[in-house]
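To: structure desk
From: M.T.
Subject: fold request, one chain
Message: Could you run this one when you get a chance? Sequence is below, nothing fancy, just the single chain.
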Amino acid sequence: MSRFLIAFLLLILCPALSAQQAKRKGKANQTNTDDMWVTSPVPVLPTNVMHRTFRSASMQREVGYCIYLPPGYEKDTERRYPVIYHLHGAGGNETRSVYSASVLHEGIVAGKLPELIMVFPNGGRSTMYQDSGDGRFMAETMMIKELIPHIDATYRTVADRKARCIEGFSMGGRGSTNLAMKHPQMFGSLFNQSGNVYHVSEASKLPNPYLGDDPERLKANDAFLNLTKNLDYIKTNLRIQVACGTADPDHLVSVREYHEALTQAGVNHSYFEVEGLDHNQKKMIDGRKATWFDFQVESLKLNQVPLHYLQP
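Reply: Done. Structure tokens follow.
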């Protein structure tokens, strides 16, 4: 083949190859992008749920969240309320999991549940609620150092870890576990709903595409190592519940491993598997609607947090 023909073929093929490479790169970057932090347009939200934004100093941008305020919030202007932070799954946003606020509202109106505030933050598309290795996405910093202080300063919350619950489904379950194991002093209870928990610091898993390859950074973000590091505090101060469906093989293995780690460490916790349930939060909630918030409410009661019940 002549040099002229080779050069001619490269001239034709290179743009096509470059386009394919750019397309692949674009797909790889779709999981986390700079425009993901505020949902627009905002869909119709359940009763008493509002969409708000606040400024994240660490990311220098607006971040969206939804907040449920109980029926008595506007009437009793002196009362302060406990808060449940509910974290959405991968690919979601601040509006993804607001269905659970409908279940909470139904229970409050019926006089079966105490009045609580519920917050649904936008945690990014696949951050696991951790700060990225390159510093571009600061999901952990945003949650712990920015959003929670913002909520406590803006709304009438009981600004105490005993009155602060954290939970989530899928990535939200993993994220809430990551945050609670690393910052147990921030929360009174944790409910992991079908959230994978991984040994992110294991050498076989390096480099981590999101956290990077710094061994010390990975150790600091390993939920299992943080369980060990903060074990005494967790055993004394943090109530934990873990659940997963038996027809959810992509999550059940690591959920069981986390449950076993808690058991071996002597951490008293609640664990259940839902027979035949796949990776579907609404099904998980609907199957136990009448008791869905019992764990968090019981945690608040054990922490002696004042609770306000409506009359049936």
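Reply (cont.): The domain at 36-302 is CATH 3.40.50.1820 (Rossmann fold). Let me know if you need anything else for the meeting.
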